[in-house]
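for the recovery benchmark. tokens below, seq after
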């Protein structure tokens, strides 16, 4: 059966879905509409992990090879807390420039016969399409038109953050925490090419206003951040993007992911806090799941229902981890004065639902013991979600 699919949004989710559907059936009529000119994109580098690369290889080996070839990798995490530093060996991670990633996916889609329409903005579903895919990001116009049906909820985080680049190439996933007279400011840094790294800077509202970042222009703000983060930048500059200032992270959730022939994909469907580095991975996994559902079902309604059910279930743990990760940083003073190796250990456990309710030093001791005794490890996995639900209900007065 040949179908006409219109993908609105030329990010990773929309492009990768187009690739997968064309691979399933070259006779499908697949188009991708992107409002920006070809080659323009926001952001710097994105991260992903070995597990995603394995999935990409299984779905489309050609694009997987291209992505891996143009990625940088690391296995260490480094935390700088003031003048102290601790390093931890962890899982293999990858970084790739967003511009490079979109270019590779665009080339692959075009090779397969996908029709790409740049500077084409669709704010309502086009007529004549069998399926319209809203992959137009966190501010999705298509989702907004039907927000009541989708059950869209958008929650703004407390902290302020800004997405920057730098010519400092970090050799590990780097966390840097710098104290100043108005509190703490911190950065997440990771390389994505041989010349550049991403540097996301975050702070509390009190630190943001105390430092005057709410009043500084772009050059003043960058100069101040370079001074505060000088120990890890090694003299390299921070690079901003015109018009891209400080933000509060917006967590988007939707009760439903489809409405008639319209389906949500990627950030239009969900967002997860940047501190867990999963946004691009989840967008690509959305595309894999939707492509599978369309292949396994002969009609659209059961295919979209299967996609929605599966992704809602798969995202529960990730969304929970992102929520607790964001809260960890919003409560940084609770952890920052621990010895660096302990603080870094709890940084790695920030996804735990139990951590916010247990004194940090006690949690560190329990976690270390659980790592050595299997029975304690199993008990901790069992106890964590149950205790967190009970304590959260009590603190909420329910």
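predicted aa per position
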């Amino acid at each position: 059966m040949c179908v006409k699919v219109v993908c609105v949004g030329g990010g990773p989710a929309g492009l990768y879905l187009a690739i997968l559907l064309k691979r399933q059936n070259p006779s499908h009529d697949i188009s991708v509409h992107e409002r920006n000119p070809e080659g323009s994109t926001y952001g710097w580098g994105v991260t992903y992990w070995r597990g995603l690369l394995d999935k990409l290889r299984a779905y489309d080996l050609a694009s997987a090879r291209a992505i891996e070839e143009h990625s940088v990798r690391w296995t260490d995490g480094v935390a700088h807390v003031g003048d102290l530093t601790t390093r931890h060996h962890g899982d293999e991670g990858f970084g790739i420039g967003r511009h490079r990633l979109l270019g590779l996916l665009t080339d692959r889609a075009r090779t397969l016969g996908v029709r790409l329409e740049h500077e084409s903005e669709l704010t309502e579903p086009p007529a004549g399409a069998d399926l319209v895919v809203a992959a137009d990001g966190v501010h999705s116009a298509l989702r907004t038109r039907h927000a009541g049906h989708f059950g869209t909820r958008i929650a703004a985080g407390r902290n302020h953050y800004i997405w920057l680049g730098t010519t400092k190439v970090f050799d590990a996933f780097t966390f840097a925490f710098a104290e100043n007279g108005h509190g703490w400011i911190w950065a997440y840094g990771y390389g994505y090419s041989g010349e550049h790294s991403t540097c996301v800077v975050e702070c509390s509202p009190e630190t943001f206003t105390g430092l005057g970042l709410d009043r500084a222009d772009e050059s003043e703000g960058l100069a101040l951040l370079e001074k505060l983060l000088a120990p890890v930048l090694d003299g390299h500059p921070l690079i901003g993007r015109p018009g891209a200032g400080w933000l509060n992270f917006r967590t988007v959730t939707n009760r439903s992911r489809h409405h008639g022939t319209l389906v949500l994909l990627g950030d239009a469907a969900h967002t997860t806090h940047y501190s867990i580095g999963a946004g691009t991975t989840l967008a690509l996994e959305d595309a894999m799941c939707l492509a599978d559902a369309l292949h396994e079902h002969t009609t659209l309604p059961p295919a979209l229902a299967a996609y929605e059910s599966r992704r809602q279930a798969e995202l529960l743990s990730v969304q929970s981890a992102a929520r607790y990760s964001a809260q960890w940083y919003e409560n940084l003073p609770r952890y920052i004065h621990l010895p660096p190796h302990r603080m870094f250990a709890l940084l790695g456990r920030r996804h735990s639902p139990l951590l916010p309710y247990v004194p940090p030093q006690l949690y560190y001791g329990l976690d270390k013991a659980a790592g050595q005794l299997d029975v304690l490890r199993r008990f901790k996995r069992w106890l964590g979600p149950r205790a967190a639900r009970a304590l959260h209900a009590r603190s909420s007065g329910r």
